Amino acid sequence: MRTRLRVFGLAVLLLLPALRVSAHVGSPDVFYEGKAGPYPLFVSVRVPQVIPGVAEIQIRSESKDVRAIRVVPMRLAGPGSNLPPTPDLATQSKDDPQFFTASLWLMESGALQVRVQADGALGQGEVSVPVPSSAQRTLPMQKSLAGLLLALMLLLAVGAVFIVGAIVREGNLEGGEAPDEVRNRRARRAMVVTAVLVAALLFLGRLWWGSDATDFQRRVDFFKPPDAALTLVNSHRLEIRLAPLGAGSQVQDLRTPPRLRLGDVIPDHGHLMHLFLLRTPDLDAMWHLHPKPAGGDAFAADLPDMPAGRYQVFADVVDPRGFPWTLVGTTDLPQISGKAMSGDDSMWSGASLVSAAALESATYQLPDGGRIVWQRPSAPLKAGAPLEFTFDVQDKDGRPAEDMQPYMGMAGHAEFVRPDLSVFAHVHPAGSVSMAALDLAQAGLAGEGGASGSAMSMAMPMADSGPIPPEVRFPYGFPRAGEYRIFVQIKRAGRVETGVFDARVE
Ligand SMILES: [Cu+2]
User: What spacing in Å lies between the alpha carbon of 270 and ligand 1's midpoint?
Assistant: First the structure.
């Protein structure tokens, strides 16, 4: 990592080549909790690594009344988003009738949705789960398959040459007649011509194969988390742009509209951008800020007081098609004397990652004497499994907190971070889906006179006033084994509070 630092009077300019991590910052699967009409469902969608590919869907119904579930993938918005094809019937587990599974082909990349229709004793209900569909990597061909195909190709190529030779030499011989020298010569000529034609065909095939592979790789690159270009434009103002793509990158040419324009992003739970600054390498401080558009394709945030250090940056935005993007970067900041935080901005600082004690701890002590308690499952945490993370908020006397308020319209926000920064997921009570995409999906359902936005009732339990229950739940699944730090953010009596939990995942 190179750092170039120049000082122009007061202005400090920081430009950093940013870190590249895998698609959607390492957590591509979708976890969603909401209601299909009268039925509360927990839906998880394991997206395929390549597109087209098969998505594995698991649905758990909290209600015993669900008899059948149907699922169908379609576009989230735009053409095709209101013409659902015939849905597939999910398989109901014999051992556990509240558990359903299905496999769905995802045929295209981009912002998709999976429509889930539940049928049962209480009638019909429907919900839509936004699914960002993107190829995550190019799978190599198996060696044995490559060998087999090569052998078959050689057989066909050589066979074609000899067959043509035989046809020209012996095609119209009388019975018992032997080919003469003229026929033999003609046959040899035909074989040479055929060999040249076959070689030309193979060459064209190779070109086609190569261009297809390049095209696929471009599609993989297209959906990678974009690099953030971060600039400190004065003593405390951080500007965020998309880093220019490297020379030779063809990502931008691949499609119209282009990959992502920060000038076009749509609001996601009340803000156009959610910016997270994590102090590295210990993750012992975290800021959750909300930069505003700063003209053109730039966003800017006024930083509060921050100690000098290296920070990892994750910036969540949603494009107009409902596809969520996380910009990724690192920046070395000097000591910042900034503005007091206001609005929905919040910060936390505390213990470093990751002590053995913290990995066991289920209780986080808040500064006012209250606590956040994670109802930690007794079984080890497993990667890939859909989990329900439940946190109880208690006041200083250990009683359920009565002063809980919605924070940006929801009971809580959680950030799951792997200390190597290869995983970052910003999760809500409705799950890992972006709230902006969920709005688009529910608007689509409502537009058809379907279950009018009932899913939002769970995602957004109340209006931004009045007390809410002192228990916050987040549906999510760890993408890989390893250690994780979980930031749980809630609001009590007008103050945002952050509880931090460490976990080891097998
Ligand atoms: Cu949030």
Answer: 9
pLDDT at 222: 82
Closest to 426 in 3D by CA, of 225, 166, 173, 183:
225
Residues measured by CB to lie within 5 Å of ligand 1, the ion: 413
- Ligand 1 centroid distance, CA of 257 (Å): 27
Q: Give residue 460 CA to ligand 1 midpoint distance, Å.
A: 12
In order, the DSSP letters of 148-211 are HHHHHHHHHHHHHHHHHHHHHHHTTPPTTPPP-HHHHHHHHHHHHHHHHHHHHHHHHHHHHHHH
Task: Return the residue matching tokens 């889906």.
Answer: 433
Q: E strands of 408-470, at which residues?
A: 413-417, 424-427
Kindly calculate the radius of gyration of the chain based on its CA atoms and give it in whole angstroms. 29
Instruction: Work out the widest C-alpha separation in the chain, in whole angstroms.
Output: 109
CA of 268 to the centre of ligand 1 (A): 8
Contacting residues for 261 by C-beta, under 8 A, at least 6 apart: 297, 319
| Torsion over CA: 171, 174, 175, 180 (sign) | negative
Q: What is the whole-number distance in angstroms between the Cα of residue 429 and the centre of ligand 1? A: 9
Give me the pLDDT at residue 357, please: 58
Question: Which one-letter amino acid corresponds to residue 25?
Answer: V
Q: Which residues of the chain have pLDDT under 50?
A: 1-23, 449-464
CA 426 to ligand 1 centroid distance, Å = 6
